[in-house]
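FIELD: query
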Amino acid sequence: MNLSDPRFVDPTAAREWLEAQRWPNGPVCPHCGNVDPAKITSLKGKAHRPGLYQCAECREQFTVTVGSVMERSKIPLNKWVMAMHLLGASKKGMSSHQLHRMLGVTYQSAWFLAHRIREAMRDATPRVLGGDGNIVEADETYYGPTEHPRPSPQRAGRPYTKRGKGGPANKRPIVALVERGGNVRTFHVPVADKETVTKIVRENVARESKLHTDESRLYTGSDQHFASHGTVKHSADEYVRYEDGEAIHTNSAEGYFSIFKRGMRGVYQHCKEKHLHRYLAEFDFRYNNRIALGVGDFERAGKIAKGAEGKRLTYRRPH
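FIELD: result
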């Protein structure tokens, strides 16, 4: 990543790059959807700010930021573009403190800018994972103490102490579905019980897929929903099992969790539970647009710019 790239230092170059990403075939009115170039005028002159357009259909004016997570932001566009590249290229994320130092904006601005970019990273139209002959791994993990501890039935009526925070019952459950060699999709759920996990798996994995899990009871009975269901017994130190020449494991899901936890502990360190889904969207995005799938840093930033369209995240609604 070349930090002297014109897009990172010149607001005009940044705006032109954003326009090329969002409107590859010319400006589109975000108010009425008009795509006719003959009915969209570029307003120029001292009375108009650079990059301003007017639609002849609805008579509304707009720029490339209207109708996106960048709308009404006073942060220069070159800093927006640089932040997109930095968050997209950093495998384990980049803290708001680091962004505020590199971009020269306040910590508060960097924090909110990062959340807006995470919103742009969120897949608004996710496809079903797997398919005929494809393998999907399902696994769950627990990260960070929940802000609303749920005591077990045995502790009902007894005072809650911090000492009880260590168990999974008082941690934030995360369910991951990983398509072997493909994409990942994660979910932060209130509780990882069989009903919740089964619903997630059935709604997000194609029935023709082969499902691989560990021996957890959460996946008992999955055989009837998919082409096959292979399990490994982690409690017996079994991490890969071969059946008819096929490797049965959940190592892809474990690898994803490893990257996620190292980023959260080493880079972000603190995360309120209400924001956890945004960090998951960030790590999902980078995993789904990694080098192994043919997506480099430049293309990744372009996808963030395109994903910013049609999404808003105001200061009054940061979650």
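FIELD: remark
The chain is about 35% helix and 15% strand.
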